[in-house]
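## tool: complex_structure
## caller: assistant
## args:
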Amino acid sequence: MRLFKTTNIPFLDSRGLWYIVSSIVIAAGLVAILVRGVSLGIDFLGGTEIVVGFKQAPEIGKIRAALSASGLEGAEIKTFGEPTDIIIRTTEQAEGTVVGDRIREALAGTYGAGSFDILRQYKISPKIGKELREDALYAIAWGLVAIMLYVAVRFKFSYGVGAVLSLFHDVLVTLGVIVIINGVIPGLNLEITLEVIAAFLTLVGVSVNDTVVVFDRIRENQRLYRSMDLKSVMNKSLNEMLGRTIITNGTILAVLFVLLFFGGEVTRAFAFTLVIGQLTGTYSSIYVASAIVLDWPRRLPARQAGRATA
Amino acid sequence: MKNYLTRVILIVAATALALVFLYPTYQDWSYRSQLSNLSGADSLSYLETNQDAIAEARSKRMKLGLDLQGGMRVVLEVDVIQLLDDLAKNKDDNFRAIISELRREAETSELDLVPAFAKKFEQRDIRLSRYYGTLRDDDARIMAELQLETETAIDRAIEIVRNRVDQYRVSEPNIQKQGARRIIVELPGVKDEGEVRQLLRGTAKLEFKLLRDPQVSYRVMETINKYLAGKIDSTGAARDSVSPAVSAQAPRKPTDALTELTGGAQTASTDTTEEARFARENPFFAYVRPETRGGTGEGFVLSKDRDRVLRLLARPDILRLLPPDFEFLWSAKTVKDDGGLEYYTIYPVKKAAELTGGVIVDARASTDPEDSRPIVNMEMNSDGAREWARITGANINKRIAIALDGGVFSAPVVQNKIMGGRSRITGMDSPTEARLLEIVLRAGALPAPVSIIEQREVGPSLGEDSIRNGLSATGYALLVTVLFMVLYYRTAGIVADVALAFNILFILGVMSGFQATLTLPGIAGIVLTIGMAVDANVLINERIREELGGGKTLRAAVDAGYTKAFTAIFDSNVTTLLTGVILYQFGSGPIQGFAMTLMIGIAASMFSAIIITRVIFDFMIDRGLQPNMG
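## result:
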């Protein structure tokens, strides 16, 4: 079976348009981040988070009243996947598990001790939260540096730049989408947790994987078609790889959708992040990574002559 | 490239290795499913007959993360400021002001606390010796002392935690030091978090307890033994009425069997019927071997029998058999006999402690200047010293157990009346043992204050849900991928699916081999790997199609397909691997599990997608079969 006949789409001719589209999407995301703020999960915020499984679906308002009565006004209360499962989060700090115990007591007072189970309880001190925030930023920064170096060594410097800029693009777009969508779809909680940070690093890995495969074909075709200009070589390579790009990304996307729908609440935000990352990663291999490699020498006219025949 | 043999051997070896690594996991699973089918007495007897094999499989199986099997992870941090506060004497307003100032500053910045603390005194022109050490000590010396005290506090805290966790009988606990001030405690499968939390919180209790008279101790054990054998009833169990029965039961003394049993495993196992008869007649001595030769009155319990004996000794009817002011304390550590068997010691002691750890001022491990054997020097305050002189004077040649939170670390014999509060404890086998005793003594004297800075508890039901969800996601992901590959690439797709099956086998095998922990993000990593693993075959197959389209023969096209797709596969996988390595470095617990499966998955997929599929293609072409490229 073959879905894709030999195509001849002039991908890079329209890159100006796509630069604008990418910029608008990123700008929209940044605005959303500024306006709505990134909602951090318990790992980075610090505080206490409890997931409670009730026998019968409770009313959020009633839980809020119970918690307010015991002095936990600011607590965030949402459903966690099932309507019977509730997640309660507060940044209130106290020694040990005092906050968690207070939540348990408040719930037991309202609903009776036997009517719910504690499915999960996390308590993170602000100190740990701060450390985890720093670690996460370092991890993503180191990830980008490592990739840029590897690609620059295996290909050319401009390819490294293209790869890393496309990764910045992917991370920003995905973050923007997460911030915009968070809270819009009921039951889909998209706080930035440790798992979501792991998803970001993974999308960096998977997206660069795609970019590198395209770069590899460009590298090969440049040797084969020495008289062809870079743009034509790139367009030719992108067309040749189109089948592979769509099939591979399609299978990965398919398994990610499986994870999103069947993987359960705990990995949902993780899977969602990867789905968005996969979509933008595929797009950015073509319209960001390759396009920037193509445009890079033009900003340095002195090197252009040498580059054109390379 | 045509040497099948090397490649086939490689594949077979890798597969065999993966299966060997996975076998204990399979065994563990099959034991558990058999156990869940049995009920009541059947399951107990099944447990007993297969105890060792079950434990063996359990220790070697793939570990499940806390998020999958439920449990608790706690990060504790030694509170250095609290420690400095605890250590000081004659505290006044100045001191308290400095402590609270330091605490405020420490919240917002990373300080090296002891120097920062000392500097504050210097600024106010107060000598440290007002609060620490003796008046003669200068600041530098006191600072060095304090520094040492804060550095060793973590060891005391770890020992306290380990000791309690051991006694709580959590299976597969993981306790490790992180940096200079943190302890990570992972307790999988803990049901009652409240109790464990209590264990981690309260201060450690060090006690000196006198061992009971050996004759009394032996008689008590014998009474329990007879009671369990049904020879006496619980009401007639007063010690006096039992004594005649002891001598009457002469023919086969439990102690004879004991020497056989402790002598080595071989002798015990040759005579199984004899052993069974003995166990039937002596239900207590079959598990608790009393030490009679030295006349110390203690008993030895094989570490595998510990839970059983613990349960037994906690029974109310057994407790009624004990004389007043009598209890059994367990040793905190096991000892090994010549046959390699591990034993706990149970010490019959007086319930009321003679002295508690608060009186200890100092304890140092050292070596005896005369014969350079390891010793521990212990120093007590004046109140303690007075009491200690009375206690030791009245109990020369008797033994005193040193117990931390109920676990006995040492039970030295009192040699003489100790005046002045300075004692020397000898008889340790190694400097490590002496060092441990030092830590224990100091832990009782100066509890290291710790605070819980991170705590994660996952209930078993959420873990079960996660496993179920993870398995179904893996199943559906496999189904989608496998079907798509067959539909799209036909024969070549089947070949890729075979490689995918090997890939998953390798991932699980390597994880078992490394004793890695499977977490929920780890399962997500496997799902993602399923999607990514076929990429290499997609690249190769697309390439082969291209080459075929260019007019090459099948053999040449396959050859070119593999060669030319290789650089793309290699470079793209290395970049993904890089992010996996960084993720592993940065992450903890579940995230590391994810990074681990991702890295193993990438490595395994390169092997299976390139080598295994190639062997299959070559084989088909050599046989004149024309694999359908779809």
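## assistant note: Chain B touches chain A through 73 residues (CB under 8 Å). The longest strand of chain B covers residues 450-458. Handing back to user.
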